[in-house]
Automatic annotation (TrEMBL):
Keywords: Flavoprotein, FMN, NADP, Oxidoreductase, RNA-binding, tRNA processing, tRNA-binding. Belongs to the dus family. It catalyses: a 5,6-dihydrouridine in tRNA + NADP(+) = a uridine in tRNA + NADPH + H(+); a 5,6-dihydrouridine in tRNA + NAD(+) = a uridine in tRNA + NADH + H(+). Residues 26-325 form the DUS-like FMN-binding domain. It comes from Roseinatronobacter alkalisoli. Catalyzes the synthesis of 5,6-dihydrouridine (D), a modified base found in the D-loop of most tRNAs, via the reduction of the C5-C6 double bond in target uridines. The gene is dusB. Its EC number is 1.3.1.-. The lineage of its organism: Bacteria, Pseudomonadati, Pseudomonadota, Alphaproteobacteria, Rhodobacterales. This is tRNA-dihydrouridine synthase.
Amino acid sequence: MKSVFISDRITLQAAAGGAEITPPVLLAPLAGITDLPFRRVVARFGAGLVVSEMVASQEMVQAKPSARARARSELGLGEARTAVQIAGRDAHWMAQAARMVADGGAEVIDINMGCPAKKVVGGMSGSALMREPDHALRLIEAVVGAVSVPVTLKTRLGWDDDCLNAAQLVQRAAAAGVRMVTIHGRTRCQFYKGQADWRAIGDVVRATHIPVIANGDIICADTARTALAQSGAAGVMVGRGAQGQPWVLAQIAADLFGQPQPDIPTGSALVDLVAGHYEDMLAFYGAALGMKVARKHLGWYAQQAGGCPQLRRRVQTATDPAVVLGLLPDALEPLPEMGQAA
């Protein structure tokens, strides 16, 4: 049964005219995963907003090639809007990076205050900023003041169970000009353990007037429906649930917000999609690095398709792109049910 929650669109006001996110189903920023080739695939099926991998602000400004590659925002197809997520500790670098990515075509600038990785937190960025709300606000003010496109924020419920301050941080962020916030329903100290607390996201929803997006453990229409019902959020953000099935955001949008049902590729259509994604990665990264980066995506596609595990390993370990492309039809062929059970 289809259910429509609140609205099928979110409007983010800004000096440059704002941005409309339709439908309110967003692709999460995932390090090493939501690069430009993957965002293009997701956009082809449909999403309200696709968000880049986290970009270190100082590295972006100082022209580190990998940082600038992560910040590229040209999709070239589909109707999804694109956001670039930036992270950092210094207001100067954050503002400079925001200007650069906005000039590069990003329609939305997202600020990372939720990454739990030790490397990021050790640099006093990401979710570490939840322990320093005054400093976090200075960074937000610097970014908002630097660009005319909408600025959004992604964070968690808090640092730990004794520091559940997302509602207070979001109230201050909204007053500073942030137009939307995404809340991952865990604390930093939980990392990705346990179950995301969608009901706790409701505390943030009730505390602010800006749209709140629910994130964490949303992998399909059923989990999205439950997350929205429990949180009262305006939309959902999907991360790991899109691995190997970039059409899942469009499926959620169809089931919950009345969007057209996507054509789920099978057989030769799936092979063509995966081959195209693979070739786009080779072009984006160069053949040597592209083959390495692509391995996880190829594995996810084959696993979702129910293909032979032995063929999946061969596809992931092959060192010749021509061999990979030649193996794809068999690697993506679902095993008979009896074979799967065995």
